Structures are given as C-alpha cells and as structure tokens.
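Please fill in the sequence for the structure shown.

STRUCTURE ENCODING:
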C-alpha cells in the first residue's frame, strides 16, 4: 500500500488525518481542527487556504468584528484610530509631525485594536487621560507610552524645554512628574537662576500662618 504523503500535514487549523474520497481527480481528506472537531476538505481547498478551520475561525472573526464595531463608538477606539491616522495617513493634518518625521505605530497595536485596548486598560487608562509618548521622537509602543492628563501633555510637546540632569535628558514636564513638583514652580525657579536640579529638589517654602 502506497503511503499518502498528505497524511499528517497541517494547513492553518486543520490537520489531515486520513484519506476520505476522490472526486474528479481531486482528493478529499478527513481533517481534525485545533478545536477537535472533524471536517472533510479537498486538498485543493486546504492548499489554497480557502478553508482554514472547521468553521470556528469564521465564527471567531465574526464575533471579533462585532466587538470592534461596538468599540468603535468609544473614546479609546477614537484614540487608537487617531494614533494610526497621524502616523500612516499623509492626508492627516498632523501627519507631518508624526509619520512625516518617521514616527510609527508598533505592529501589534496597528493590526489589532483589542491588543491596544488590553494594554490601555492594564496601564491606567481613564476617560480624562490622553496618550503620551515618553520619548517624543520614539514610536507608539507599550514601552514608550503612558496615560497622562491633558494639562500634562500640553506642557510635554515636542517644543517643550528639555533638561539634562546627571547625563539623563527629559522634558521639564517629565522631570516634574518624577520629582512630584509643580511645573510652574520649577519653571519660575529656573528663570530666577536656579539650576534644574536645585529647582526640582528644593522643598517648597511653607506659608506663614496668619495670626
């Protein structure tokens, strides 16, 4: 008996287990899906990828599309869509400051809103916060992004003052968050002649109580 070379081969979620039949020279095989259900498929459909599962993959994709459709009305979805537009769409009014400068969205976030949503909810997202890149020249990716208030982001734009302390360069807004200091206070101190480190580490003066 000639051994069938197709037995044991896997195409997407389907693994060929045994020969089933042959119709008009096209062989059909019994396959087992990753979900354990069986399905008879022609070798032609397996090889060209027109059949990838017992049907479970189509159901999962439908559920996912419906979920994303519902999410598309949320603020978080609009943030995701806006992020991609700024980086990928030359017609976007903000493209020159993002995609035009080489800023991109990491593959995982760009291809799947659910992955971005899961990261956002696990990293402090709230409806009053905005997405910030820690390095304004870096990409949109988990290690370079965080959620901050609109006021903080306004002071942390690409034009913000950059300060170097002990060989580390960050925006003044970032240093203020790290040292838990008020941005306006630190900025005023530096204008009055303090070094950045002095302005960040000098304790605020205590107000004298009125007698």
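FILLED IN BY: designer on duty
SEQUENCE:
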């Amino acid at each position: 008996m000639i051994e069938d070379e197709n037995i044991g081969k896997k195409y997407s979620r389907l693994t060929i287990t045994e020969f089933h039949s042959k119709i008009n020279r096209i062989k059909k095989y019994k396959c087992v899906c990753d979900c354990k259900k069986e399905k008879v498929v022609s070798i032609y459909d397996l090889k060209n990828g027109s059949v990838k599962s017992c049907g479970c993959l189509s159901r999962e994709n439908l559920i996912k599309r419906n979920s994303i459709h519902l999410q598309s009305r949320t603020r978080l979805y609009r943030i995701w869509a806006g992020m991609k537009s700024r980086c990928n769409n030359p017609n976007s009014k903000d493209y020159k400051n993002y995609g035009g400068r080489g800023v991109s969205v990491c593959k995982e976030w760009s291809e799947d809103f659910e992955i971005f949503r899961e990261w956002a909810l696990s990293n402090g997202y709230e409806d009053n916060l905005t997405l910030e890149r820690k390095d304004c020249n870096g990409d949109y990716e988990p290690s370079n992004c965080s959620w901050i208030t609109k006021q903080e982001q306004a002071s942390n734009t690409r034009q913000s003052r950059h300060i170097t302390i002990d060989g580390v360069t960050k925006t003044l807004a970032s240093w203020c968050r790290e040292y838990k200091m008020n941005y306006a206070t630190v900025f005023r101190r530096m204008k009055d002649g303090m070094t950045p480190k002095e302005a960040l580490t000098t304790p605020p003066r205590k107000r004298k109580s009125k007698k």
